[in-house]
Amino acid sequence: MNNQFTPGNWKIEGQSIITEPDKGNKLVIADLTDSGAMDKEQVAANGHLIAAAPELLEACKLTLENLTPLYFTDHLCIEKLKAAIAKAEGR
Length: 91
Hints:
By secondary structure, this protein is an alpha+beta fold. It has helices spanning 40-51, 53-67, 76-88; strands spanning 11-13, 16-19, 27-31. It has two domains: 6-51, no CATH class; 53-91.
C-alpha cells in the first residue's frame, strides 16, 4: 500500500476539507455534506478532526521517536502511538 496522503495544510472550507497543493489548485480531501444523521456541531467537529489529521500523524511520529529511547517498547503510551500510526497508514 502506498502511504502517500495528500500533503499540505488541510482546512475546512464550506462543507469540504480541502488543501491547496502545488500552484494553489484546491483539492477536495473529504466532503462533509450532512446526510441529516448528524447535527451541524457534530459535522463541524468531524471536519476539524479530519483537517488536523496530517499534523496529528506527524505529532504522533515525533512523539514516538522521542519517547522510545526513554521507555520500554511495551509501555502503554508507545503501544497506543504505534497503533494510531499504523491505523493512519492503513496497516
